[in-house]
Amino acid sequence: MFHSDRGKEFDNQLIDEILEAFGITRSLSQAGCPYDNAVAESTYRAFKIEFVYQETFQSLEELALKTKDYVHWW
Length: 74
What we know:
This protein is mainly alpha-helical. It has helices spanning about 15-20, 40-50, 60-74, and strands at about 1-5, 25-30. The longest helix is centred in the C-terminal third of the chain and has 14 residues, at about 60-74. InterPro entries: Integrase_cat-core (IPR001584), RNaseH-like_sf (IPR012337), RNaseH_sf (IPR036397), Transposase_IS3/IS150/IS904 (IPR050900).
């Protein structure tokens, strides 16, 4: 599941094709309803504060492993 607001960077044909290629379902917030995306925004904020800003990664593999560990913990 990929949930986002209706910003043009997320609501476009290229993103549609990528999500379809990986079998990922799209979910867009309702138009004119900023609170519809509040949970996603809050989750992303916590992820950045608790994880991204606290870590240094030496490789993409390390990033992937630490991200997986964080998500499993959370």
